[in-house]
Structure formats: structure tokens, C-alpha cells
């Protein structure tokens, strides 16, 4: 079976700062893998290397068997299969929710306006903000904006989704709605790589939890093991701080 994501000996430097120091990991189709770890440990950089928002210094990244780090690869074609959701929702402020979910479909997938609108409405319904199609981002709560951002990613029919702390910018009472949407996606079989501090979500939804610290993977295993019975002192210290 081809891995959905395969990362082999990934290194990333920013100048003299080595942020990723030889990462090895795989995500299989349909799996949910949560990445946890302290701020500055390289989690975002890792995720960004998976769709080449950052170019690795060394090592290989494969998405569905295609080597992203191969200079001849059609990176736009690979990126189209990957949905990404950020901590900051990055919606266009001058467009409605509906327009935000339509625009990339029209520009990138060359869908006609009618089709893009149908797909946008379906996905906004799916994430529970179908009634907010005509609202502008400023008229939506953070949780609603983040769900629009998820709908926007889903409208592109990605094979896998990357989430970078999707609930970290939200007021606590809005976190649950976003996690519910993510849980539903996971149950539908979406392949997901999720950086999160939500240990409850990681425990319940993840097939595997990866603990990163200082640019390396310290532990990688089932949630019950990594969160419930960590083997490394660094993991225990981190969990002690966040749980
Ligand atoms: P995390 O997401 O785990 O908090 P990051 O991947 O954002 O960690 O950052 C890891 C380290 O890389 C930090 O020291 C950060 O300052 C540095 N870093 C991240 N992006 C850049 C960049 N574009 N240029 C320079 N340094 C960066
Ligand atoms: Mg980060």
C-alpha cells in the first residue's frame, strides 16, 4: 500500500537554525495522526514541508507516492490533493462565506460558477454554517470562520487534510464546534495530519500521536500509549504542563 504521506530524514534549516533534524514518519490512507509538542518544536514547519510551503533542506517527502522534493514534480497538481487549514482562518474579508468557498474552485479547478456554488453550499452545510452563506467573515464568530475555512478546503475534494492548530485562535466555547466537524471528517475516512493542543481530540480521534520536541520526533504511537503512558521524560514533562 502506498502511504498517503511519507517523510524520510527531513531536515529544515532557517539560516543557521536547524528546525527539523531528521524527521521520519508516515500517514496511511484514512489515518488521523495528531502532532503535539511545545511551541517552537517545528510542528508548523513540518506541516508546511508536506505541501512545500517550506522547501526542505534535506530529505524526502512523498504524497501518495509522488516525491514532492523531486525537482521535476508538478507541485501544483500534488498541492491540489492537499487541503490545509491554518490557525488564522485566512478568509478573504471582502467576500462572503459562499464566495470564499467558490473562488479557488473556479480559479484552480476551473469549475463553472453554478457548479462551484453547488459544491460550496454542500460543504458549508456539511460544516454547519449553511445558513451563513451570505455573511462576510467579520460577521461570523471565529468558530464559524474556521468552519468556512474547512469547507473551502473540502470543496477542492482533497485526498488529505493538514490542520495547523485549527482551534488555537478560538474562544474556548467555540472550540467544540470545530472539533466536531473534524471528528466527523475523520469518521468519514479522511486522511488527516493535525497539529493540535487538544489532547481530548487526539486521544479520541487519532490513530497515532506524534510528540515532537526540538525538531525531532520523541515518541510516535497509539494515543493511549503516547498520551496515556509516555515512555520518554520529555513527553511526560510536556503532558504534565498541558493536561
Ligand atoms: P511550532 O509550530 O512547533 O511552534 P515552528 O515550526 O513554527 O514551531 O517553528 C520552529 C522554529 O522555526 C522556531 O524557532 C521558529 O522561529 C523558526 N521558524 C519558523 N518559520 C521560520 C521562518 N520562515 N524563518 C525563520 N525561522 C522560522
Ligand atoms: Mg506552529
TrEMBL record:
Q: Topology versus the membrane, per the UniProt entry? A: Peripheral membrane protein
User: A Gene Ontology MF term for this entry?
Assistant: ATP binding
UniProt domain ABC transporter: residue ranges: 5-239
SMART domains per the record? AAA (SM00382)
Protein's recorded name: Polar amino acid transport system ATP-binding protein
A Pfam match: ABC_tran
Source domain of life is Bacteria
Compartments (UniProt record): Cell membrane
* PANTHER family named in the record: AMINO ACID IMPORT ATP-BINDING PROTEIN (PTHR43166), GLUTAMATE_ASPARTATE IMPORT ATP-BINDING PROTEIN GLTL (PTHR43166:SF9)
Q: Which family does it belong to?
A: Belongs to the ABC transporter superfamily.
Keyword Transport listed: yes
SUPFAM superfamilies per record = P-loop containing nucleoside triphosphate hydrolases (SSF52540)
Keyword entries, A-Z:
Amino-acid transport, ATP-binding, Cell membrane, Membrane, Nucleotide-binding, Transport
- UniProt main location, coarse: membrane
Question: Which InterPro entries did the record assign?
Answer: AAA+_ATPase, ABC_ATPase_HisP-typ, ABC_transporter-like_ATP-bd, ABC_transporter-like_CS, MetN_ABC_transporter-like, P-loop_NTPase
Source organism of the structure? Nonomuraea angiospora
